[in-house]
Amino acid sequence: MIETWIILLAIAVGVAFIAEKIKQPYPTLLVLAGLIIGLLPIRILDDVKHYATSDTVFQTAIITIFLAALLGDATLKLPFGELRENKKPILWLSLGGTFLTFIFVATCSFFFLHLTLQESLIFGSVMAATDPISVLTIFKSMKLNKRLSIIVEGESLGNDGVAVVLFKIALVTTVLSTTGALHGFIEFLRVVLGGLLVGAIFGFAASRITSWIDQHLIEIGLSIVLFYSAYQLAEHFHFSGVISVGTAGLIFGNYGKRIGMSEQTLREMDSFWEAIAFLANALIFFMVGLEVARIGFEGKWGVVLGSIVIVVLSRIIAVFASLTFDKTIPFSWKSVIGWGGLKGSLSVALILSISPDFQGKDLLLAMTFTNVLFSLLVQGTTIKLLVNWLKIK
């Protein structure tokens, strides 16, 4: 198992190095490399591919190991002041945009792709999430307008939590009724508020502890404990671990840094989590490529291709609809936010978490992985052209 992870990491880091040299976003190149290696009959890598693409390993690696680290790194560096200044568009996109995407995708999937009601709701919730890592890696390489980047990052982190909650509700929803809708709304509040509460308690506690410590190694260790314990405790009580880690990281990265971290600690902690996030991302996107290569698409191409059209259009419509009343966001920014709503590791992890006994899982897997692949390889590689065409600085 250790040898397998070393091989995976070595390949992923090598591909990321090549991406850097040819000035391409490394998530896109890693997914492509994983897809190619997964399709080619390379006997020496058979055991590695079999291990990396098993549902248990993939889900455990992303959900248990990588997700908390990636969310923690992203929120740790997110300035609360700038989030507060842009709270309106972020909230409109995180709540309104995510919910509208969910409704549009689920409705179109039910009527046009002829999925069952529950399959439609599950697919809608999975496609409502955007991947902050994919988007921000590409945005940073283009050095886009800072406010636009803050809005996109804030939305990506916010809609992850909302999408997870919608996914959990969709799993237990079989019929639409007033009672079912009320139950879903109560469950939504419970999961969100529970995640916020756990994250806030852990974030403030860790921040106070840092004021008693002046040793950067101990404080970095504390941040590791913070992110993983906040995630696991929230999930234990069936709250949102994503929202919990996001809240804890935001508090620790702003309040904790202000009251208890020296300049050396700030530099060392940022460097540590930047390195962890890079390695986690490299493995995730490479494994996504490997996973796509093993999925069977026989007899599913019509539904799969139709789902891509539905997801892309639903995202764009939801973005423009949710930002209708925000006159500070120009048309060009809305276009970039809509087209830049890339899918990533969270969508994959959610769909893999469905029970193997679920009748429509194979079709949902094919649809989800194809949409992730399309967003990274097509949207991810053309967004720079869109930015230049729209003349966004």
Automatic annotation (TrEMBL):
Sorted UniProt keywords: Cell membrane, Ion transport, Membrane, Sodium, Sodium transport, Transmembrane, Transmembrane helix, Transport
UniProt key word Transport: yes
Compartment(s) of residence: Cell membrane
Ranges that cross the membrane: 6-22, 29-45, 57-78, 90-115, 121-139, 160-182, 188-206, 237-255, 276-297, 303-324, 336-354, 366-387
Record carries keyword Transmembrane helix: yes
Annotated GO MF terms: potassium:proton antiporter activity; sodium:proton antiporter activity
GO terms (BP aspect): regulation of intracellular pH; sodium ion import across plasma membrane
Protein's name in the database: Na+/H+ antiporter
Species of origin: Neobacillus massiliamazoniensis
Taxonomic classification: Bacteria, Bacillati, Bacillota, Bacilli, Bacillales
